[in-house]
Amino acid sequence: MKRIITVLGTRPEVIKLAPVIKELERRPHMFESIVLATGQHDELLKQTLEVFKVIPDHALKVMRRNQALASLTSRIIQDIDKALKKYRPDAILVQGDTTTVMAASLAAFYNRITIGHVEAGLRTKDKYQPFPEEINRRLTDQLADFAFAPTEAARKNLLRAGVPKRKIFITGNTVIDALLQVSSFDKRETIPEIPPLQERMILITAHRRENFGKPFLNVFNTLLDLSRDLKDVSFVYPVHPNPNVFKMAHEILSGRPNIHLIKPVNYIDFIWLMRRAHIIVTDSGGVQEEGPSLHKPLVILRDKTERPEVVKAGGAILVGSSKNRIRQAVLRLMTDKDFYRQMANIPNPYGDGTASVKIVNILEEHYGHYH
Ligand code: UDP
Which domains, and CATH codes, for the chain? Predict the structure, then answer.
């Protein structure tokens, strides 16, 4: 029996690791699954754990108000180090590119514990975009013993970074597993917080650190203008609780009859909102992978993306925070039906919902054969 600690700290990590945790739990003859939550996002983490009915075995409380990255990082390393000494796992699993991922991997390395990195190999090749995630994932990929790459492009990035071939496995992205699992228990028909919506709705999410300040000022003012031009369209925006986003979004966008600023919704409701949306305007990572599965064109509020597959396939347009580019993309999608249809109907480059089974099969085979 191998003891695996899955470490998670934020909403997307729960969404993308829940299917892996469930798969480990399905094989109790082989694995003992322990879930460790760092609490890097407190409220959003709780909301998402509830949806997937994942109950952490060990919870850290690493968040402090307005905490600097250095302090968050060192706290996570120290607290995870203690947990690893207590549980002595055979391996840890981390997902993505948060500070939790990088710090947990470093703590595991110090304890000579095997590391599996889910969603390895994503790159923008710009160390500050996204910040600090690009560096978090590069470091984690160097530390990992298993690099679970979602796509061929991610595998190539890993090879270019010097990660040995034998450590790299293409699995697809576990977000598709999560999306399919949650869609099967998706019964929601309305969100209590919002009034009946117009026939066409634009869904918005925005929270990236590198967009704080002037970029968000541009984005929010452009959305305000668009809401005046498109009076028969509803705009729904679950606002991220980070004060750098929350304050400016409310100052600029509240009070318009067709803009609905709501609290972050749980994953079941968010999938309902994505399905209900005509297009999605976002700077989120995960939403770029979910959009093509749900046939929703994406307008991406970033200059660079580590998910080039969806842009290359024609399902997303990169617009950064430029007023003209955001306006052009949104207005074209709202008026040009052929363009819309083309963007909505691309094959999903991120997998088919079997990534978590593949990942656990790889671990099982490894431990079955070598130990
Ligand atoms: N999401 C959610 N509720 C919301 C907004 C987003 O459940 O109100 C989901 C979304 O479907 C995606 C994930 O959260 O799977 C993305 O999280 P986030 O944008 O925080 O992080 P990123 O993907 O950019 O790392």
Answer: 2-172+354-368 (3.40.50.2000), 200-344 (3.40.50.2000)
